[in-house]
Amino acid sequence: MSEPLAAAVARDWGLKLGEPYPPGAASVCVVRVELPDGTPAVLKISDPHRESDQEADALERWNGEGAIRLLRRDDERHALLLERCEPGTFLSQGAADPLGVMIDLLPRLWTDAAGFHTLEDEVTWWGLDGELGELARELAATQAERVLVHQDLHGDNVLAAEREPWLVIDPKPLAAEREFAVAPIVRSGELGHSKREVLYRLDRLCDELGLDRGRARGWTIIQTVAWAPGAAQRLDEVVAWLR
Questions:
Q1: CB–CB of 17/89 below 8 Å?
Q2: Chain-wide mean pLDDT for the chain?
Q3: Fewer CB atoms inside 10 Å of the end CB: C or N, the chain?
Q4: What residues contact residue 212 under an 8 Å CB cut-off, 6+ apart?
């Protein structure tokens, strides 16, 4: 954790530092802060990372619509000042129908994607080979309308808040068709890990959002393999169930 950098940013922005949150996979520092007027907020300082490269841009594009608000940014120091979610309970732990919450949030996030990295570029970057690589390139080349999607929207990236009941955090944005957006939700182990639960999420998301089930299924397999090559048994099982 980079305490000196967080302290420097806090000093420059007139923030009062509080208790840190547990650091995420790509975060140097995530800490509670207060603005000069006492408003609670969060200071996040991240390591440069391809998938979160346009995190601030996505939050600006959403402008608080279903997602936390971006209050200030410093691109040189990879620092973001963010709206604080209180009580901050994870969706996976605090909602009677977490999948219903996701279904309500997704269309609000599907806004203009101009200027964002594309799914076609991401497929090239993944470099998948064999039949899966062919399927990825075929799906990428035949996408429907591209919208802004959060490609890491799992059960712990939505928090209970006061301004709205639930707000999305930590965007990994892409310009992609809507079917791609359900991949992280379908495989979200936080929302239940069994063949029945995975297929239920796929079916309900596609039914209620009017998505092509075959394309959504294909994208879930592709992105799960691309993001976790040879990783946890849990993800291998998701791929096997979907296949």
A1: no
A2: 94
A3: C
A4: 179, 206
Give every CB contact of residue 229 below 8 A, 6+ residues apart in sequence: none
CA 26 to chain centre: 13
Q: Which amino acid is at 118?
A: T
* CB neighbour class for 115 (10 Å; exposed up to 12, middle 13-18, buried from 19): exposed
C-alpha to C-alpha distances, 194 to 14, 15, 57, 64, 129, nearest whole angstrom: 48, 45, 35, 33, 28
Q: Cα–Cα distances in Å, from 52 out to 14, 34, 56, 116, 229?
A: 26, 25, 8, 11, 19
Are the CB atoms for 142 and 78 separated by under 8 Å? no
- Domains of the chain with CATH codes: 3-83 (3.30.200.20), 91-242 (3.90.1200.10)
pLDDT digits (tens, 9 = 90+) for 107-163: 999 999 999 999 999 999 999 999 999 999 999 999 999 999 999 999 999 999 999
Q: Which two tokens stand for residue 51?
A: 């998938």
End-to-end CA distance of the chain: 40
Radius of gyration of the chain (CA): 18
Which pTM value belongs to this model?
0.94
Query: Does the annotation mark 121 as catalytic?
Result: no
